[in-house]
Task: structure prediction
Amino acid sequence: IYLVHPDGTGIRRLTDGGKENNRLGGWSPDGRFFTLGSNRRAPEGIDAYVCDPDAGTLRLVSENRGIGGFTDISRDGGHAILSRTVSRGNNDLFRVDLQTGSETLLTPHEGPANLSGAFGADVRTIYLASDLAGDLRVFVRLDLDARPIPLDALDQRIRADVAAIQRELAEGGLRCVTIAI
Result:
């Protein structure tokens, strides 16, 4: 992974290169760091890292036995959502404290599940696309203050680009969701 100025100058490599596989993740809302996945620790797993581009340092946050990576960063930059593949067609989502690396399982389930998620306006609300309730993916809101954490379906019949809706909600760009069925 390289960092370069918009005009093409100042290129510098941030990963070792040639010995590992790296996947670029997202930037923090304030632009101070970004996430990436890499198998630099062990060839059998893609771990989740945070990179400080100014210092040129990588910090391992979450180890994975298989494939995993951060899918979103909270607005305050303190937490991330980690998707960890259990097996083909089955993954779990975790909320990870980026300073301590502590993980909270968000999606306990049995059997296969295809899950993706994004933070709401705060770190206590997470929006998911989930097929836990059946064959179709539904848009779900997680309220992390509730116990047990309920999976509240926002629309059981959704046939839309849920990833785009999640991004819009996380960025605060949507006040409501209208879906044509």
Observations:
- The mean pLDDT is 83.
